[in-house]
From TrEMBL:
Top-level taxon: Bacteria
Name by which UniProt lists this protein: Uncharacterized protein
Amino acid sequence: MSLIERDYMGESLEERKKARSSRIERENRKTELWRLYGKKRKTIFDKMKIRKLEKLNLQDADN
């Protein structure tokens, strides 16, 4: 098998940047979710943000 035939070599620079940025975005969402889960007193805005982040994570997992 040549290097060109490998999957990771077929990706362009833009595809790798897009994948990296989406991975970083996902990690940031997970960090924010855990911070909100850990709060003792959650406001209604915290609860709304938790629902929004959970929904985004589910959509991201489906793709």
